Amino acid sequence: MAQFFGNKYRRYLRLAVILCLSGAAGLSGTVFALSRPELYQAQAPVDGRSEAAQTAAFQAAMRIVLVRVTGRRTADEEAVFAPLVNNARRYVQQFRTAQDNQLWVSFDGAAIERWLTQNGQPLWGHERPSTLVWLSVATGPQSGAVVSADDTSELKDAIDAAALLRGIPLVWPPAASANAAANAPADLAHRLGADAVLIGRANSAAATAAVRWTLQFQDRSSEFSGALDGVNRAADLYAGLFAASGTLAPVDIEVSGVADLREYANVQTYLESLTFITHVGVLALTADAVRFRLTTRGGIEPLAHALSLNGKLQPLPAGDNGLHRFQLRR
User: Fold this and answer.
1) What is the sign, positive or negative, of the torsion defined by CA atoms of 145, 151, 157, 159?
2) How far, in Å, are 10, 16, 33, 137, 287 from residue 39 at the CA level?
């Protein structure tokens, strides 16, 4: 990805930040959160009006989408995805010219998902943790100012652009919270609805600043360095947990605590919304429990990770014959 998103794409990255910020207007501190259709939309430079230039832009946009929906940083360079890249035009549903010699492209997400599934490649849908970024920029040897949602520095723009390319929803602290020295990032993340905390310390506000990062997500904590490594390593971790690969297979689960038809419908709708589940069937209804048969890729592991993300269904000890059981949380 480093080769593809080199110097000639910096203009695109700046534009991407502007677009994602305008699309998130009204969301307190949130940079963006891509919907399922938006995962398959991208902008790429277009060099003229010829068919060849348009084809090249379609292929560039497809590379961007592949990095985002597979979770693999190098997907844009991997030969296994050449059939999708070379035939990018075939998957285009809509396109239009945009500012700054860009072409906006919307691809057929369902068709791309089918290809990835049939070819055993990972698919990372919209199950994406939101991450609070608590980034202090050194103003002296002992202190630093925390970057807020209102900040317009090169470093914040670069981090936002990298997050957009990887499909990572970021949350920046409101100015009032960033200025409160006593604020605990983990507590603030909870109040803002973020799932993870990315804590960084930068030596400047330049796009090439040296930054030391600590990522805290659920029971995991890791450290790394580099201006954009915080976003990229977070994306790598999330993709490893939430991206699913392999052929479709049935998984049976039981959900208890379902009191009425409304709750039953809500649980079924929620399960159907998960990217890697293609079908939800009902096997049995007993008292306040519903046994579902899910057609899913990746088996129980990505399902369990996805369910843990918002906590709607809390895991219970396994039932008879290892049946996976969950409790509906109200």
Assistant:
1) positive
2) 20, 14, 10, 31, 39
Question: What's the half-sphere exposure (Cβ side, CA atoms, 13 Å) at 283?
Answer: 13
Residue 41 to residues 2, 58, 167, 267, Cα–Cα distance (Å) = 20, 11, 11, 29
Give the contacts of 138 (CB within 8 A, at least 6 positions apart). 144, 201, 202, 203, 204
Q: What distance in Å separates the CA atoms of residue 32 and residue 161, rounded to the nearest whole number?
A: 11
State the pTM of this model.
Answer: 0.82
Identity of the amino acid at 290: V
d(CA 7, CA 274): 36
pLDDT band of residue 321 (cuts 50, 70, 90) is confident
Instruction: Tell me the per-residue pLDDT of 149-187, one tens digit each, with 9 for 90 and over.
Output: 999 999 999 999 999 999 999 999 998 877 665 568 888
8 burial type by CB count under 10 A (0-12 exposed, 13-18 middle, 19+ buried): exposed
**Residue 102 Cα distances to 38, 45, 159, 221, 238, angstroms:** 17, 4, 21, 38, 29
Contacts of 217 (CB under 8 A, 6+ apart): 129, 131, 195, 196, 197, 234, 237, 238
Query: Which residue in 203, 226, 180 sits closest to 214, CA to CA?
Result: 226
Q: Which two tokens stand for residue 185?
A: 């990032």
The first and second tokens of residue 137, run together, are 């920029």
